[in-house]
Amino acid sequence: MSKSQRSIVVGFAAVCLSASASAQQPGTPAATVVAIPPLATPDSGQKANQSLAIAWQATQMIASDLRTTSELMPLPPSQKDFYSYPEVTAPTFSKWRSAGAKTLVTGFVQSRSDGRLTFGCYVYDVEKGRELARKGFVVAGDEWRRAAHKCSGLAYSAVTGAPGIFDTRIAYVAESGSGDGRSRRIAIMDSDGFDHKYVTGGQAIVLTPRLSPKAARLAYVSFAGGQPGIRLLDLDTGNERPLLAAGGINFAPRFSPDGSRIVFSMMNGTNADIYVASASGGIPQRLTTSPGIDTDPSFSPDGTRIVFESDRSGTPQLYVMSSDGTGQRRLTFGSGWYAAPDWSPDGQWIAYTRRGSDGRRIGVIGSDGTGERTLTTGPGDEGPNWAASSRDIVFQRTDAARRNQIYRISIDGGEPRKLEIPQDGADPDWSGVMD
Amino acid sequence: MLLTAVGLAGSANAQLPGLSRRGPAAPVLQGIDGLRADFVMRSGGDTVYFGTDSAVLGPPARATLAAQAQWLLQHPAVLVRIEGHADASDTRSHALAVGARRAEEVRDYLVLLGVPAAQLGITSWGKERPGAGRAVTVLVR
Predict the structure, then answer these.
(1) What is the rounded distance in angstroms from the CA atom of residue B69 to the CA atom of residue B62?
(2) Which residues of B touch A249 (CB under 8 A)?
(3) What is the pTM of this model?
(4) ipTM given for this complex
(5) Which of chain B's residues have a Cβ under 8 Å away from the Cβ of A267?
(6) Is the CB of B97 less than 8 angstroms away from the CB of A272?
(7) What contacts 24+ positions apart, CB below 8 Å, involve A186-189?
(8) Gap from B105 CA to chain A (nearest CA, Å)
């Protein structure tokens, strides 16, 4: 990664700090204050210096990870708070109590004889003086950032009970230029903006990248064959193929929660219907037959149900069915259009794009049809996609000059925050936690 | 086709070496550009428009398509691609479906008027070419 990209990311972290500080409005629950003394090391000599350098960077990264959440508020790490290795598992709590911290994260970095690193992470309840969670990770020397993200996730889960979203990836369509002639490539990056790379060339129009749950594969729509069609890309090997050997215009792919199937839309004459196919190939199975446009299907996290958009009642609304296509019932009844649903990983919510006469906004509705509310002000918002925590949503915002950017919003409210990416961006997709 | 042409040129060169110095052959101007211009001129346009969120063909669209059908029946060797577009204010996937549905309606109408389906390919640009508007363009290819 170049120096300039790195400084962009640092800038993003600073923006997050101010955004989360201003998001502390009256009425929102106070964030849990977390103390993160510098990670320690059991190493000695020259190795100790290397390990401590990584440990300090990892400490700062954990703090900046937690700062991006609305639930946790890290104290700024200070090298004066240095812990010895034995103190990692036997910390003193009184100091952190008086500093106002409710949670303490300690850890160590140890270099192994094979060149890899062992990370140890510990999370404590400061008031009760007891351990909440611990975990160890072994990573390649140049992958310490992933281990730090895992530590952040451990702390986030221990406090909130929800999965951390730090060791996750975001795919999106990077756009350069504007209007009909803009070039589009699919880009993938870590959720903090690092390791940004392009995985398609700019020759064909590409849309709606969808990562498999652990971010190893990508399904997307390409116009390379003349008609829009779904393609599958293995991100490790670079192998790529169309989802269907033959067939008409097909689009709107999404993986099942176990990654084995892909649900999508295909045209049948003037109808668009929902189909499901094995991600490894084979004949697709048709799930909907009603006249009209059925599209943007999304699995429930247990894989038993599918939410989708259908205009069978006249205007697009959201419907839910069993994953075999039976039991189709309408979920939304409001005015305007409901489109592009995405089922939250915890199963509770369905995010959608609502289109009215005055623009498009992002909203959520309980998967039981209750608790509907609008999250964004529009007027050019679309394509919501959940973070693994089920607490944050990424979406696309189109400005008055028709340029697209990617924003992130917490379902607790507050202002959306713009993701810092090298170009314009559309169709964001946030992966689950990687292995 | 290409291989045959190259083969012929090769054998012509072998028999008549002087030919290769004769300069390029006259361009085949009855090619794609000429056909497109003729199609647009004689059909009154290559594009038909739709109402908001609609795939219904209105009278002006039907008149244009009738003229296009006539031209296509007179040019049975010419293939066209029917390209459907949707509104920029639509959502991404729904727009693809709306564009495809409009293109299908145009194809169905041309077939109804007797144009062989084999002459007609379709695609949808969804909202990816926002300059096009709520339209279907019949493109000679």
Answers:
(1) 10
(2) 96, 100, 122-124
(3) 0.85
(4) 0.86
(5) 97, 100-101, 104, 124
(6) yes
(7) A186/A218, A186/A220, A187/A421, A187/A425, A188/A215, A188/A218, A188/A235, A189/A421
(8) 7
